[in-house]
Amino acid sequence: xxxxxxxxxxxxxxxxxxxxxxxxxxxxxxxxxxxxxxxxxxxxxxxxxxxxxxxxxxxxxxxxxxxxxxxxxxxxxxxxxxxxxxxxxxxxxxxxxxxxxxxxxxxxxxxxxxxxxxxxxxxxxxxxxxxxxxxxxxxxxxxxxxxxxxxxxxxxxxxxxxxxxxxxxxxxxxxxxxxxxxxxxxxxxxxxxxxxxxxxxxxxxxxxxxxxxxxxxxxxxxxxxxxxxxxxxxxxxxxxxxxxxxxxxxxxxxxxxxxxxxxxxxxxxxxxxxxxxxxxxxxxxxxxxxxxxxxxxxxxxxxxxxxxxxxxxxxxxxxxxxxxxxxxxxxxxxxxxxxxxxxxxxxxxxxxxxxxxxxxxxxxxxxxxxxxxxxxxxxxxxxxxxxxxxxxxxxxxxxxxxxxxxxxxxxxxxxxxxxxxxxxxxxxxxx
Length: 431
Description:
By secondary structure, the protein is an alpha/beta fold. It contains 18 helices and 11 strands. The longest helix is centred in the middle third of the chain and has 16 residues, at about 175-190.
């Protein structure tokens, strides 16, 4: 677990009393579970862990209280305990009595030591602002930033977030959308980017699988506890993500998702990453919430186009009509979000041999009629140049294989007349 300070935490437990750290448990103890880490947990970490039981993600009122009072003092205010020198700390203001009463009830029941111990049992930990692993780009959310994050997995979140891209989209995606998401994620992972998504069915799952299949890095941001497999059909996938990458969320162990939590989860995905790619999204898709949040935060917003007749791509196309960038593969994504020099290859159509000809030579070639030979005088008139110039250009075209001589007449070679490229010959001749 991530913590600060070496002193015994003074934050109150759920019953309002300051209690000792939980007893170690293991094969030789009464609990029969793996021993909890011996690392001391500072009061700030303990207070913020408690607050994840008290408030819903993105609660800007509590975010303002945290900014004004700090986590330790705020939890004391909510539990009604006395702080040293405060003479009886008053409850924070700015909310109605009913809402404040709800905060107080949840604060009285919060047991952060129990949650931290539960997280430690499955290899989890808790990080919060000020800790070494906290990704500071989340601070761009202002008062809506997470109180803290519960993590599962070995990699360092702050390091991974520095080079991460979100790939999100429709749950009920088409085979085309799943293919594009998986291919994009695999290509990004191969380039050293962390693929971040929400572990949902459809595009999210395809993105995680693409990164995993390439042996790359992926992180899942959940709208529930990181120990809860949701959706249930992705239990195996989440296990693979936890083993190879990271699972993170704002809610404490055992918490279950709600519709509003999914929407609020999206702001974390947007703020955590360098940019967001949307692959298939209808007009009311939650993925558009992520994309628009990324736009507000100054992150790159990208979309993969689909058929104009597809309702599942209508939301993406709406984004592309605005400030989003059109991307079709991982190289184009990396060019936008990466460092200087990470350029996508130049896109162009097939190169024809006649494209390499000098302008005057090409004009003579264009003057030659199809299907019959022509005299020099006819070609000079058609190309608007002198007969001597035409003769010189015709011999050049003959050496490159474009034309053939028939006595005093000239005609297109069979390969040229049939649409052949003559690329090799043109390359030998140059311009």
